[in-house]
Amino acid sequence: MIGKMEETIQVCKGYASDDWEGAIKNCFQLAEIGKLMNHYELLLITLDVFGQMLLMLNHIKRAIRIFEFLRSLTEEVNDHKVLIKTYMSLGNVLQRDKQYEKALICFKNILLLSWVHDLKNSELEAYNGIAIQNFYMGDVKKCAIYLERVISGIHEADHSTMKRVAIQSYSVGDFDRKKDMRFLLFCESKHGGTIIDYTCKHLSKILEL
To answer: 29: Cβ–Cβ under 8 A, 6 or more apart, which residues?
Structure first.
């Protein structure tokens, strides 16, 4: 089963032409394998691979919808590591679509999560994204401030009032308790049904195929 899973991931990644029938078939197959294995992480990999493949095929709007849906799932189960990665993917694709204000929000969310979970590398990645969006939005001064942080490796001080207030105001919701990811497969999604069932059922609808 693991071998088949890895093979399917490579097939999804390897699509070089606009072959929607093959792409959907393999992504559904990957999602079904995840369902059979009760594998939450594989479900997220499926969506991420599909989103990256859409970018490769230059289907920007569809990629945005995939990453927005992936964000909603990771927010629901409060998986901060995957959520940071998802915000990064979504921020980059929004930047590519010239939606700089929305992209800026994604990178600011990465910054907040990096402060809450004390992730220094993610903090610098967030500063880099914030700098780029400010550049595209015409605020060269802010761009320079954040870029200097990236170049010099400057992190926000722990005693910073802004950082402390941001962390204190951050609400992680009901899923802050340390739960097994496999348990989350059987939790009711806010969309109705279990999280993985909803994804398998509505993948085509998300893409508006």
So the answer is: 8
